[in-house]
């Protein structure tokens, strides 16, 4: 078999779509071959939203869901849920109150009494059927922001206050050069502990059904 340039083939290929009837009842027809090909490449999208990187190795795929009125879209690829304004691409809400990775997102089809939204989050430890599961509900206002704002730790401030005495003593014992790699590792691990603590504190005010999930 001769070698084929797949990229060139996709660019030059004329896509033709055969159809029996249009929605208005027009008899069968063929797509106009004079139109530009429909193929698009990654990176050539009209719009794109980058999701924050997740350190959770058990969550490999991103999941998303639009609000019933299509004004916002919720997305997650791990332990954090973000809500974006579809028109402006602005991030309106970030929720870190999850102790298990997100497996599914959905919005209630009915708006709340204030014209807001109810976001349903399905989470579990893994894809296994016997793993721990939970269904969490987030109440959002018409602007896409949390109705009740959680009390958050200033993780960066706590991290620095906690690490200062450790840094000082390590520098005295082994010198700044020797302590540098140890401090980086310690800082990263401690930040994960603080992130976990923050998630637990934020989750305590959320309506959560343990062991229940519709995904």
Primary descriptors:
single chain, 215 residues, alpha+beta, Thrombin, subunit H, four-stranded antiparallel beta sheet, 10 strands, 26% helix, extended
Describe this structure in words.
The chain is an alpha+beta fold and 215 residues long. It has a domain at 63-150 and 205-210: Beta Barrel (Thrombin, subunit H). The protein contains 2 helices and 10 strands. The strands form 3 sheets. The protein has a 4-stranded antiparallel beta sheet with strand order 3-4-5-6, with no helix packed on it. A 4-stranded antiparallel beta sheet has the order 7-8-9-10, with no helix packed on it. The longest helix is centred in the C-terminal third of the chain and has 49 residues, at 155-203. The chain is extended and about 85 Å long. The model has no long low-confidence stretch (mean pLDDT 74).
Name of the CATH architecture of the domain at 63-150 and 205-210: Beta Barrel
N- to C-terminal distance: 45 Å
Helix content: 25-40%
Q: Give the CATH level 1 class of the domain at 63-150 and 205-210.
A: Mainly Beta
Low-confidence stretches: none
InterPro entries: WD40/YVTN_repeat-like_dom_sf (IPR015943)
Helices and strands in order, then pairings?
Elements: H1 6-12, E1 18-19, E2 29-30, E3 63-66, E4 72-76, E5 81-85, E6 91-95, E7 102-107, E8 117-124, E9 133-140, H2 155-203, E10 207-210
Antiparallel strand pairs: 1-2, 3-4, 4-5, 5-6, 7-8, 8-9, 9-10
């Amino acid at each position: 078999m001769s070698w084929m340039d797949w990229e060139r083939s996709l660019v030059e290929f004329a896509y033709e779509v055969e159809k029996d009837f249009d929605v208005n009842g027009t008899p069968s027809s063929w797509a106009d071959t004079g139109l530009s090909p429909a193929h698009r490449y990654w990176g050539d999208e009209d719009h794109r939203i980058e999701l924050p990187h997740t350190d959770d190795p058990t969550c490999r795929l991103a999941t998303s869901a639009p609000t019933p009125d299509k004004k916002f879209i919720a997305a997650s690829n791990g332990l954090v849920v973000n809500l974006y304004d579809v028109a402006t691409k602005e991030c309106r809400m970030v929720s870190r109150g999850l102790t298990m990775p997100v497996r599914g997102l959905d919005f209630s089809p009915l708006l709340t009494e204030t014209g807001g939204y109810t976001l349903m989050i399905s989470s579990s430890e893994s894809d296994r059927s016997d793993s721990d599961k939970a269904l969490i509900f987030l109440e959002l206002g018409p602007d896409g922001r949390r109705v009740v704002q959680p009390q958050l730790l200033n993780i960066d401030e706590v991290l620095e206050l906690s690490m200062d005495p450790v840094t000082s003593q390590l520098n005295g014992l082994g010198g700044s050069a020797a302590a540098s790699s140890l401090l980086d590792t310690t800082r990263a691990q401690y930040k994960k502990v603080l992130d976990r603590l923050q998630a637990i504190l934020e989750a305590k005010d959320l309506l959560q059904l343990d062991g229940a999930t519709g995904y």
